[in-house]
Design goal:
Length: 189
Amino acid sequence: MLCVLLWSECERAHVARILPFFPANHFYYFMESLRNFVGFEAEPKPPPTFMEQVNETFQLSYTTRIVVFAVTLLLGLCCCFIAATFVYMPRTFAKWYTLGSILLIASSMFLMGPWKQMKTMFHRSRALASIIYIFSIIGTLYAALHLQRLGLTIVMIVVQVLAMLWYGLSFIPFAQEILKGSAKQILPL
């Protein structure tokens, strides 16, 4: 009887696999209540690490993540459409379009989670496109807001759009290779 009371987590999981008719959580609570009844204290849990505390603090429910994803996605698309009305004013276009790009990245971070999004963005197949995309966003804002240079702003917008296109194509199998092959056929490279 004493051996049953002192079982470890591993042994509880093993018994739960052996006895499928006795669900693991019921078995766990049964053993805990039996321990408390006999007078044994529960196993002390180690204090959570800093990253566990951060993850627990920022953990959102599935429904909340979907709602926030939809809202930020719609806001990002609205900003991009608003930017399209300012094509004749490159600085204003750059501001709205870059805000839309940032909101689109944020929306996918809410859907996937920030760490998984970063791992996906910096995967071997799309790391270069991600780096160029992020630096083009920063460069567009710098050229439009700080330097206020029209020509450089237009160049940064073009780089940002091309980097976003290349980044987006990295999610479609063989899309980058098809685009490279088409470019070789059309352009004299």
